[in-house]
Structure formats: C-alpha cells, structure tokens
Amino acid sequence: MSNTGSLQSFAPALTHWCFGITILIGLVSSGLTGAEAILAITIAGGSATLSAICSCAPPSAELKRSDRLSSLATFLVIWLDVLANLVAAATCARLASATIDYISKGHFREFLFGLEQHSLGEPWPDVLGVTIILVVTVLFMMGLEKSSTIALLLFLVLLCKFAFFTFIGSFHTVADFQKWSGSFKVHSIKTVLIGSAVSFYSFGHRMPMTTKNNCLKIATLFFMPWLFYSVLATIFSLMTHYRELEGTAIPLIQVFQTRDVDWARPVMAVFTICSVCLLLTEVLPTVYMTFVHLAGKEWRVFVSSLQYQTRTTGAPVLAIFAAGSLAAILAFACPLSHLIKLLSAASLIKCVLVSCQMIGTRYRPQEGDFQETSAAIQYRKLSQNSHQTLKDRLKGFFGKSPQYIHKLSSPKNRGKSEEQECLLFENKSSNIEESEENEMEVMSCSDANSETSADIDVVVEEYRRVTTIMGNEINRPATKLSFAVAIMCLILLVVTALSLPLFTCRLIKFYWPHALSIISAAIILTALPQNPSEISKPNFIPSWLFPFMHSLSIVLGTTLATSVIASVWQGVVFWTIAGLLLYWRCDCCQCDVLEPLVDKATSKIDPHHVIYEFKTGDLSEKSVIVAR
C-alpha cells in the first residue's frame, strides 16, 4: 500500500480529532472539573475504541435481498452514518459563524438579521452558516475533490492550534489541585456520562482500512487523542473557575478573555475558522458519495439520476446538491447545543447497531448447512470405479472434517468383484454428484449383497456414536433455536443498558443486577453454537472474546446514548422513519421505475418496459427514461 493510501486510511481520524480539539473537549471541560473531564474523556475513548475493534471485520458487503434482516441492519447503519456526517457539517458551519460573531462583537449578526441568540450564544437563525455550506457545496460541484493535501493541511492547523493553546495557556493557569478535582463525587456520575457521550465523537470509532500496523491503529484511535485531550482539559480547567464558561459555543477562545489575554483571541479564532472550513471538505464528500452509493444498483434507494456526473469535472452534482442542501437546512434551523447531542446520539446508536448486527451474523444459521442432525440417515451405493489417489487420501486425512469408518464384516468367500462401497450422508445431500469436491467420506462396506436392514441400523448407530464422541472436534452449526436465544440475549443487553442511567445515584445497591444480567448474557452467547463460515473469517479479536467484547460495546454505547438522547430523540426518530420508508418502498416495489431491468445472461431489457431517449444540451450526452 502506498504512502498516499495509508494517509487516506488514517484521514477519517482527523475529522474526530478536529471536533475534539476545536469544540467538544472545550464544552466538556467547561461544565466539569478537571478530574471529571479526564474521566469522561477516558470513558468515551474506551467506548469508541471498543466499538472500532468490534467493527473491524464487518459482515460481507455482498447483500442478498432475500436476507431482509441483515440488509435492513446494514442500511440503518449507513443511514445513521449519513445523519452523523450531515450534523457534523452543520456543526462546522455554525461554529465558524459563532466565531465570526464573537470576534465582531455581534455586529456581523446584526448585519445578517440573525438577531436572536440561542442556548450557547450563537446566532439563530444562522444565515452565515448556510452561506459557508453553500460556498463549499459550489466548490465541490465545480470540481473540488477530497485529497490528502487538504488532510495534511488540516493536521498542521490542528497541531498549531493545540500547541498555541497549550503554550500560551500554561502561563495563565492557577495550580490549585483542590479546585481541579473538586466536586468529584459518586453522585456526579450521571454528569460524567453526559460528558462522555458529548466527547464520544472526538474519538474515531472505525478501524483504519489497512492490513498491518495494528499498534499504530490503536495509538491513533485511543492513546494519541486521549493524551491531547487530557492535556487540553487540564490546562483549560486550571485557567478558569468551575463552570465559569458553561453554556458558551467557543470556550477555548473565550477562556483567554477571562484571563485578560485579548491578543490571543484573534489567533485562536483564525485557527478555529480554518480548521472547521477545512473539515467541511472532509465531511461533505462522505455524505454525497454515500448518496451515490445508495442510488446504485446495490441499494437503489434513491433515483439512479442521482449518480449523474458532469462531463467537465466528473462531479456528481445532484448528489452534492442534495447533501449540501440538507446540511444547510440543519445549520439554519438547529442550534449548536442540539446539533452536538444529535451528533453524539447518531454515532452511538450506529455503533450499537453494528455490534448487534455482527452478533446476529455470527449466530445466524447458514443457508445450505446441515441445521439439525436428522434421525433418518440415507445411504447410497457407488460404483466399483471409485478410486482415491494418495494425494486425495492425504488431503482427507489432514482435512477439517474427520473420517468415520466402520467395517461390518470381512470378505471370506467373496471375490473382489463383489466388493462395493456405500456412502453415508444426510437427507439434504441426496442429490450430491459423485465428482463434487466437498463430497462426504466414503465408508467401505463388505458383503453388500447379503447385508440386511439390521446391518444398516448398525452403521447408523455407529455413525451417531462416533459423531457424539468426536463432537468437540466439529464446529456445531448454528440453529434457529440458538439464533433466537442470541436475539433474546441482545434484547437483555439493550434493556439493561437503557435502565442503567436511571440508577446512577445509587451505585452500590442497584448496579449488581445489571452486572449480573450483562455477564449472564455474555456467557450464554459464548456457549451458543456459531456460524462456522463467520468463525473462519479473519478477525481482530479472538473467537472466545467475541461475545464479551461485543456485549460490553453494546452496553457502553447504549448507556451513553441514553444519557443524551432525551432532548434530541425527535430528530433520531424522524430520520429513522424516513429511512425505513425509503427502504420499504424500494424493497416492496423493487425500484422497477428507477432503472431498466436487464437480463445479465442475455443482456436484454425487459419487454414490459419502454425505453425513451432524448438529447440534452450536449449532443454527446444521453438520458434514459423508463416507464411501464
């Protein structure tokens, strides 16, 4: 993999670092003491890293429309990721607008008729935020592309901002450990959970798509951002009093005003505006490329015309316009406090859905496998010409499935021409061809002409006995019953996590039932049979740790999401219902009106469709309209 590809694989982490350094850590530190802020950052980093590790080997990208449950879960994950990116773009725009309004002392807000202020003091409705998003959208429509150069520039701006704040702020701190760790009590655990949920997006929750450098991956996901955020929170909490700047949109800039360092405010403002504007060029391409993907043949959720690309720049202008319009609407209407909570809630729910989907895939019965041990076992006589070479015997000897050979009797008065071979197999394999590579092992049976039904019963009983003895060497396939038990365990984990924040004030008395439920569900999942095809896939975590880590990821994600979703649940529900309606409409109608049905074998279009062609302004471009 080239250096450019490696840099691009780690580029999504810059998005989370930019949000953490620019706004999220400042908001958390302004409402908590230094010790509480570091604890909240640690919990958020652990939850995000655990989600990234658990989702490093997602289910297969090849979707089957017959597998509706898995396809729906995958679509919801993509749909919530779109919501998170749209909210991130709107947050960047409002943050830039709030910074400009603060530096201009409100005169710019009055000029743009945004006279009303909201909870964090930023202008509302935000006309400047809409203008910023529209400008970036037009740039992308004109041919601007996401590149490693912009990512590198964003990284340099973040380093300069962190170094400036750390160096200048360290000269204006008050070393008072009692004030720094004050109000750190057990009853404030609910406030710490809210701070953890807010700072969750500051950590990357998706593993970089590289095949090596695992230590660098973990350092990028947790250790490096945790170190930066801890230093940032410590210096900020030593520069200001407890909750002195709570309820401000740009606390890292306003903290210099409280310490009478006015010359540092314009410098921090320039760093903030540059970082969020560069961040828009990283977030918006993710949204419109997802729209293009959802309009493709794999999903067909949107109309296929959304994939249209201009001839001059090659940019999908319709998808870019749709993404920019949605982000502009959010920036215009939603205040910054709601956007930040919605950003955290969407990311947390997406991570929980990914873990639930992976557990469901691991314990789902595989099509074509032998789901249950049938009581009726059939056999089939093979011809005398069946012959195994030395290579085939060695391959069968070292294969995964063991051989079960039972000798009924020895041929005494029979010639070799009378010897035949019998194949023992299940009911579902009655049509297996003799030349198939995965054919089950052949059992030699002598004296076939004189065998009776009693001899067949002996073979069946011997087969069952050996299978029972060697059961530990065979991967038990998942069944419908085990899949139902796994679903019940998932429901138990989610319900336990939903009720967990309700008892945070009584930690010792009420937490042991929750811990017992979580441990019991994880142990049951460990004991259940798993899908052999999923076990054989390469995974970042061992198979025996798979249920425990995913259970902990689900509980942490659901608990943190519950602490912030109370004020933004309407937006999450509305976006989810809209996605389900799109998915149901596409799955029900099969999107026949979106694109022609082409037979891949004959390359012919369905005769029930009528094709019309018309020419656009450019004579070389053609569009196709399909109608019944």
General description of the model:
The chain is mostly helical. The longest helix is centred in the first third of the chain and has 36 residues, at 68-103. The protein has a three-stranded antiparallel sheet with strand order 3-4-5, with no helix packed on it. A two-stranded antiparallel sheet has the order 1-2. The chain contains 20 helices and nine strands. Strand 1 (116-117) and strand 2 (123-124) form a beta hairpin. Helix 10 (251-258) packs antiparallel against helix 11 and helix 16 (480-499) runs parallel beside helix 19 (546-564).
Task: Write the SSE topology.
Blueprint: H1 3-31, H2 34-54, H3 68-103, H4 107-111, E1 116-117, E2 123-124, H5 127-141, H6 148-169, H7 177-180, H8 189-198, H9 214-239, H10 251-258, H11 264-294, H12 317-333, H13 336-362, E3 378-382, H14 390-397, E4 420-425, E5 442-445, H15 453-469, H16 480-499, H17 507-527, H18 532-535, H19 546-564, H20 569-589, E6 598-599, E7 604-605, E8 610-615, E9 622-627
Antiparallel strand pairs: 1-2, 3-4, 4-5, 6-7, 8-9
Helix pairs in contact: 1-2, 1-6, 1-9, 1-11, 2-8, 2-9, 2-13, 2-19, 3-5, 3-11, 3-12, 3-13, 3-20, 5-11, 5-12, 6-9, 6-11, 8-19, 10-11, 11-12, 13-19, 16-17, 16-19, 17-19
